[in-house]
UniProtKB/TrEMBL annotation:
This is DUF3109 family protein. Belongs to the Rv0495c family. It comes from Polaribacter marinus.
Amino acid sequence: MFQLGKTIVSEDIIEKDFVCNLSACKGACCVDGEAGAPLDKEETKILEDIYPKVKPFLRKEGIEVIEKEGTWVTSEWGELETPLINGADCAYVIFDEKNTALCAIEEAYNQGEIDWKKPVSCHLYPIRVKDYSEFSAVNYHKWEICDDACSLGKELQVPIYKFVKQALVRKFGQNWYDELEKVAEKHLK
């Protein structure tokens, strides 16, 4: 672990390789698991605001859950997250012709309907950020459904922090990322 500003960062994000391999996993991270995507407080308002523009991209099941539970929910542990369809799929999941899970929010973004890509926790994956009162912990979330992404990352020699560069800059800013790159260069020598 090392400190960058008000973050404590796991060395795994510079030592481990990762590149999403959607053709292998079919977007399993959006349909497996026990909870929806973690959300920041500000993101709950964004989801409420963009829902009318995202709704045309959603599946019927997603619309039903969102209209029943809301565009976001609070878990039993008090965490803000996206709602789930039958305790599995994120309510915002859609599927392409190859049955690969995609994000309706990101699809609306890609088609120019909205200017918000998706929740930052999704954008950052496989990095998870946990906020504490004095700092944020930045960790690699290892999940066996991503083994193909680890293999592809190793083959292409892309460390996690480079794979999620855009998301890290979005979350922490360009200066933070530049400092992370300096740490990585020294660490990997």
